[in-house]
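Entry type: protein chain
Record version: 2
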Amino acid sequence: MKTQKKISKTSDSFYSEGGSVGYLLLHGLGGSPMTLRFLAQGLARQGYTVSCPFIPGLAGGSDMDGLSAWQDWYAAAEKAFFELQETCDRVIVGGLSTGAVLSLRLSQLHGDKIEGLTLFAPTLWPNGAAIPHYFKLTVLIRQKWFANLFKVSDGLPYGIKDERIRKFWFDMMASQNMSMSDVMGIRGGKLVELRWLVRQIRKDWDLVENRTLVMHSREDDMSDISNSFEIMRSIKGPTEMVVLDDSYHMVTLDRQREHVVNRTIEFTDSLLSPSPKTPVRTPANSTSQTTSALRTSSSAAE
């Protein structure tokens, strides 16, 4: 691979020019490319071309009125995917939280052009321990205009277990004249759109045939690990899962971020290998555990 040539920032998007293998990383609902920066830099150091686009409407503070639709989020992700394809021979797609869900949709529609998937704390629905019990009632709201009358705000620890990293995050928001309530506060209409996006994805599970790496923390405070289990049971392609035990939701920047980078690189190397090896059920290290699930089409249909 070529060595990294440049890193640019455009409209809060991050792009690192590297070799002929591209990596598309998608941020989550209420997030930004900054949540993926550590992972992006780790992949860039390996010589990959990395794109972390800012997705209007999905990014925190970019749609305070909740007017964007999931089709808008997907269109921005798809545009970034096509742009990366123009400069790279092979493209791997991944994302954090809702970004992982958008990655699944890209696989359903463009799986033949995708080398593999990397899903970090995928969120089919926010159901972690930090989500208030009354939040379950939002599934009863079916009209977006009515849902937009409500605003759901994530509270401490904001998906970050490490207090030092959390403070850095607060300081970064303050330097941009933004509060955490501005970034993490989500209009109910966005949650309705997320529900509609997931409903579409569930209709087309069998279209996800790409080899997939899933990483999720058993302590995820926003998205219970059951989200990842559903994905592993449902998609058609071979899957491998890494369970983390010292992080909350933001696994790409929390305490085990280096392990997340290393496992992502290992998975990517195996994808690009002429003869990828079948994962085995072995502990990854003292702070995580790897569970592999390689399935054929027949077993996936059971």
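Comment: The two ends are 41 Å apart (CA to CA).
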